[in-house]
Amino acid sequence: MNNINSNQLTNASQASIEQKAAQLKQNQQQLAFQNVQQYVTTAQANAYTNTVEQNAKQLEIQNAKNYIQKMNGQIGLK
Asked: Would residue 45 count as lying in a domain?
C-alpha cells in the first residue's frame, strides 16, 4: 500500500470539491436557461388560461353570492 500524506489528500479533496462546484454552477446555469425557455414557451398560453380560470372563479363567486341572496330573501333577510 502506498503512503499518502495529508497534503496529498487535501489537494485531492480540494480538486474534487472544485470539480463538484464547477458542475453545480453548470447545472444551475442549465436550470436557469431551461426555466427561461419554459417561461417563454408557456407565458402566452398561461396568460389565456389564467384569464379563463379567473373568469370561472369570478363566476363561481358571483353564483354563490346570488344563491346566498336568494336564500336570505326566502328567510326574510336582506
From this structure: yes
